[in-house]
Design a protein that fits this description.
CATH architecture of the largest domain in chain B: Orthogonal Bundle
Strand content of chain B: 5-15%
Distance between the termini of chain A: 40 Å
Number of helices of chain A: 7
Structural class of chain A: alpha/beta
Radius of gyration of chain B: 34 Å
Strand content of chain A: 15-25%
Distance between the termini of chain B: 72 Å
Number of domains of chain A: 1
CATH superfamily of the largest domain in chain B: Transferase(Phosphotransferase) domain 1
CATH class of chain A: Alpha Beta
Radius of gyration of chain A: 17 Å
Number of helices of chain B: 42
Shape of chain A: globular
CATH class of the largest domain in chain B: Mainly Alpha
Oligomer: heterodimer
Helix content of chain A: 25-40%
Largest interface: A-B, 44 and 46 residues
Strand order of the largest sheet of chain B: 9-13-12-10-11
CATH topology of chain A: Rossmann fold
Largest sheet of chain B: 5 strands, parallel
CATH architecture of chain A: 3-Layer(aba) Sandwich
Number of domains of chain B: 4
Shape of chain B: elongated
CATH topology of the largest domain in chain B: Transferase(Phosphotransferase), domain 1
């Protein structure tokens, strides 16, 4: 089992940074946002989330089928931002499921692998799709992951940076393995998200990010929900 | 081949070379540890079978890159005989040489180069058999590139091997970065073994020369031809066997060679006789079950010594991870000693077993022996460790499996009881009805041509159940890739979906040495349980499956269903990986083995029941949780008791009318009783209708069976029938014993049933299946059952197609007659 729990020794330290967990003393607003991760498979989406949420890294992170869901809270000045993170499957075939996850998302991280040019191309396609079909105010961040493998770099920093600027995206190169920029990219998104009552859903009251849009389920109207 | 009295297990150990610190492969993943690579290479060695080779039985990895190898062993070697100054007569020399050459011919035909010749690696059994040992180490260490010590004894090594020398720099070469030519250059060839053979023969001969002062000219020719400096001038093993010397005229008189082995205690003779018919790998499995532990044996023999970790710390470590000032740890050096493990303890442990256990088909063994009968009732994990029970089961399955496919029914019957882990691979293949000609079929499939899904397959394999060493080894990855490519290639109507890798893993692990069988099992498994799931557009298949899953939850556990529905926790969010991989993506493999042991006995609807059993095991937490907590619960699958889960699933399966889980996409052959016309999918229409209905429908067939008018099937009625048509229609004809609750008039304003005699009757039947019959021209039946569901009523279903479907059945009566029935 040793292979399975192959965590970096610095795991807890990385996640336990001051800005991370809400402490009981926080008095300010609580905002809840739905964030979705998109990108080609094996670029490190699940690893980024795992690093951000649990401070762990598994070399052999299993592939994601369908989607996975995790939450993490960050403190930003006097606001507590709770991310509800939908980590999606990367394989192109699961594409048809993606709208179910990004619908209603206030933020998205589109991930590519800096050692693989194709994944960057795929990231651009995702950005385009989000711009066209997701909520108009969605905050999109572009993450060039696996920055620890700089020796095998295939996507230049400047190229990606330029692309991100043109499209108004946040951009960082990250490494889930070394934890480089992982918390930072989530924090940057948290900063950019509107925290007035209208947008983010204070205290989870809007619940916009909580549930999947079930309009297509054909089920009984959501109003009968009891939560 | 029977195990002789002196046959024992030989345990040896060595350390694989460490990778340089912090290096990673071309895909960014850490390099596979060399010990894992050795594990993978070893597997094909364990398949070698030859009377002149000691069989390899098992390999395992322990900490610090150390591997332990278990093989057949005998205490007498050629060296022992030479040291005893035993004189080798010509007959004997010919016998020994011929045996070695036969072994070499076989090894070379399997592309295995020995390289490790020594007179102590040529073992002699008490029956006079000559058997090479330690012949696989050069092969399993990939021409010694995976270890940091040279392989082979200089005295026996061919000149070209010595000339190439030993290059420590190649010990950690990453095979993927080294071109094949380099490897070939550094690798020894079969002809080097021929030289070593010559040296061995010379050693035997010299002894007789010294003692008897005479040359044995017949052998001289052989030795000389072997000891040619240029490899190309040496004969091959095949050519050697054609020398007249090895012709039939020199048959070895067996008596000449026999020497007394340590005699077995008389009380063990009977059990030895019985055990000697079993393959050594099976005997080893039993030795393991009685508590045998190779690591402990090595420790006892003083070969493994623990050193406090602090003594192995280097004096200086650079930032890059290089370390200095650490004396070489002697324990990592190669030690060729072999620890002999006698099988006597095992025999002693088993001697109380009656002989009939070894012939289970002749007698009713299980009923004759109370201990076995008791063991059969134990929890799975315990009975898998019960040596008596396992021995009985394994011997029995062995016999049945030998008769496959004729004995398939018997195998299925026994598998219902349990499947011994040792036989699982073959039992699964039998349960999946694998065609015995699978090898040829697999050989004919193209597994090489590049394909659009190659990249996906390549990124998925190194992430799939990699905690299993075999699946993480390069051999494992290569096999994995070939099987998946073969499947994609062979099924043009389907595509590669992520998840197929998880489905393949259990088969690959079980049939690691029979890739074709692993493929055949996968190819049989998919149509049986995942028919059409791998269509390019599979959403209709999956949606139907999930809708049926929701129905099943509603049918058995309305409280849970209503809660999950209410918080919006739909199966789409968590159950796709469950069903798409038949749980292989969500549970570790040791659990999958137990799960699939039973799954393979069920039909294509059984997995739905497993899904419900999983939910029910987590029922308490789910009921207490909101959406976020629920989905977090499943993003890291909690501990599930598989044995309990299976027991529950079987219960669920048996108490569910078959038509509740009817699916349009289920494999055609399994539709119940062939009469599918009763069940008209066109009436259900699209999946969205199916999804919008919250209660399942049952077919008229199931209905009549459950109604059991003649009381033939069930002692007590299983089902209560509620007819929701208006009273007039009911009076004109109804199902005998049905309760009439007209939809229009039976509700109070707050949505509960108006109390009346019929409602009381229904209340008394709570827990039975409630089948609601509505008119065929409206959906009031469905609505009624959904309100019952809202009222947390269990086991509610609707008669498919409504009342009219029963008109032709001649079971209807006018209710006046009901009371007289």
């Amino acid at each position: 089992m040793a292979n399975r729990g192959n965590q970096a020794g610095t795991a807890t330290a990385a996640a336990g940074g001051a800005a991370q967990r809400p402490n009981g003393a926080t008095q300010g607003k609580i905002c809840q946002f739905k964030l979705v991760l998109l990108g080609e498979s094996a670029v490190g989406k699940s690893s980024l989330v795992l690093r951000f949420v649990k401070g762990q890294f598994h070399e052999y992170q299993e592939s994601t089928i369908g989607a996975a869901f995790l939450t993490q809270t960050v403190c930003l000045d006097d606001t507590t931002v709770k991310f509800e993170i939908w980590d999606t499957a990367g394989q192109e075939r699961y594409h048809s499921l993606a709208p179910m996850y990004y619908r209603g998302a206030q933020a998205a991280i589109v991930v590519y692998d800096i050692t693989n040019q194709d994944t960057f191309g795929r990231a651009k396609v995702w950005v385009k799709e989000l711009q066209r079909q997701a909520s108009p105010n969605i905050v999109i961040a572009l993450a060039g992951n696996k920055a620890d493998l700089a020796a095998k770099r295939a996507v230049e920093f400047d190229e990606a940076k330029g692309y991100a600027e043109e499209n108004g995206l946040l951009f960082m190169e990250t490494s889930a393995k070394t934890a480089m920029n992982v918390n930072d990219i989530f924090l940057a998104i948290a900063k950019k998200l509107p925290k007035n009552d209208g947008a983010g859903g204070v205290g989870g009251s809007s619940g916009q990010g909580r549930r999947l849009d079930r309009a297509e389920d054909g089920n009984k109207p959501a109003s009968s929900c009891c939560k | 081949m029977e195990l002789t009295v002196d046959c024992c297990l030989g345990v040896s150990t060595f350390c694989a070379a460490n990778h340089p610190v912090e290096s990673c492969g071309s895909n960014g993943l850490p390099l596979t540890p060399n010990s894992v690579q050795i594990l993978g290479k070893f597997q094909s060695l364990s398949q070698l079978e030859h009377p002149n080779l000691c069989a390899y039985v098992e390999i395992c990895r322990i900490q610090h890159e150390r591997v332990i190898v278990v093989a057949e062993h005998y205490s007498t070697s050629l060296q022992t005989l030479i040291l005893k100054k035993k004189i080798f007569g010509l007959d004997l020399q010919i016998h020994i040489s011929r045996s070695i050459i036969e072994a070499l011919r076989y090894l070379h035909s399997k592309n295995v180069v020995h390289q490790n010749f020594h007179s102590k690696n040529i073992l002699i059994s008490s029956e006079g058999g000559v058997k090479l040992s330690a012949y696989g180490i050069y092969y399993m260490t990939q021409s010694s590139t995976l270890v940091s010590f040279p392989i082979g004894y200089p005295k026996y090594l061919a000149p070209e091997v010595l000339l190439l020398g030993y290059d420590p720099s190649k010990s950690w070469l990453d095979k993927s970065t080294v071109c094949d030519e380099t490897l070939t250059l550094y690798s020894s060839k079969p002809k080097s073994d021929i030289w070593s053979l010559g040296m061995i023969l010379l050693e035997m001969d010299v002894l007789s020369v010294v003692v008897e002062q005479s040359v044995q000219p017949e052998l001289k020719e052989v030795i000389e031809s072997c000891l040619q400096v240029l490899p190309e001038n040496r004969p091959t093993a095949d050519q050697l066997l054609k020398y007249p010397l090895f012709g039939s005229r020199f048959n070895v008189p067996a008596a000449v060679f026999k020497f007394p082995a340590q005699p077995l205690q008389p009380d063990l003779l009977r059990i030895h006789q019985l055990m000697s018919k079993l393959p050594l790998s099976e005997v080893y499995h039993f030795w393991h079950l009685v508590g045998g532990d190779v690591e402990a044996e090595l420790r006892k023999a003083g070969i493994l010594r623990n050193k406090p970790a602090i003594f192995s710390l280097p004096c200086l470590v650079l930032e890059e991870g290089e370390s200095f000032g650490q004396t070489k740890d002697r324990t990592t050096l190669f030690d060729d000693s072999v620890v002999e493990i006698s099988l006597e303890a095992l025999l002693r442990r088993l001697q109380h077993l009656p002989s009939s256990v070894f012939d289970p088909l002749m007698d009713d063994v299980i009923n004759d022996h109370q201990t076995l009968r008791e063991a059969a009732q134990l929890p799975l994990v315990i009975k898998e460790k019960d040596i008596d029970y396992q021995l009985y089961r394994i011997v029995m399955f062995d016999k049945q499996l030998r008769g496959y496919p004729l004995t398939r029914q018997a195998i299925v019957k026994e598998a219902r009881e349990d499947v011994p882990p040792f036989c699982r691979a073959r039992v699964w293949a039998a349960l999946l009805k694998v065609d015995p000609s699978y090898s040829a079929m697999y050989a004919a499939i193209d597994k090489e041509t590049s394909h659009s899904s190659d990249r996906q397959i390549e990124v998925d394999i190194p992430r799939c159940h990699q905690y299993m060493d075999l699946l993480a080894s390069p051999e494992g990855h290569a096999k994995f890739k070939r099987i998946l490519k073969a499947w994609v290639n062979q099924h043009p109507q389907y595509v590669y979906w992520q998840g197929l890798d998880s489905l393949t893993a259990p088969f690959l692990l079980l049939h690691f040495n029979d890739e074709a069988l692993a493929y055949a099992c996968l190819a049989a498994f998919i149509p049986k349980y995942l028919n059409n799931f791998f269509w390019k557009d599979n959403s209709s298949v999956i949606q139907e499956y999930l809708a049926k899953f929701s129905h099943l939850i509603a049918f058995h556990d309305p409280v849970l269903r209503n809660h999950l529905d209410c918080i919006g926790f739909v199966p789409d969010l968590y159950a796709i990986p469950w069903f798409l991989t038949m749980f292989a993506h969500v549970f570790p493999l040791h659990k999958i083995f137990h799960l699939w042991d039973k799954l393979l006995l069920g039909n294509s609807s059984f997995p739905l029941c497993i899904g419900l059993a999983v939910l029910q095991q987590l029922r308490e937490s789910l009921l207490e949780s909101g959406f976020n907590e629920c989905i977090l619960l499943f993003s890291d699958m909690p501990e599930i008791d598989i044995e309990r889960c299976l027991k529950d699933s079987i219960e669920i399966f048996c108490s569910t009318p078959q038509s509740v889980t009817f699916r349009q996409h289920e494999p055609p052959s399994v539709s119940p009783k062939g009469n599918r016309s009763f069940w008209d999918f066109s009436l259900i229409g699209s999946n969205s209708t199916l999804k919008s209905e919250r209660c399942p429908r049952i077919s008229a067939e199931d209905f009549i069976e459950l109604l059991d008018l003649n009381h033939k099937r069930f002692a007590r009625p299983k089902m209560v029938v509620v007819d929701v048509r208006n009273a007039n229609k009911f009076q004109n004809g109804a199902v005998p014993g049905s309760i009439n609750l007209p939809y229009q008039t039976c509700w109070t304003t707050d949505g509960t049933l108006i109390p009346c005699e019929q409602v009381e009757q229904l209340e008394r039947a709570r827990g039975k299946i409630v089948c609601v019959i509505g008119s065929s021209c409206n959906d009031l039946g469905l609505k009624f059952s959904e309100i019952l569901l809202d009222l947390q009523w269990p086991r509610v279903c609707t008669l498919h197609k409504g009342f009219d479907v029963l008109l032709k059945t001649q079971i209807l009566v006018v209710p006046a007659a009901v009371g007289m029935c």
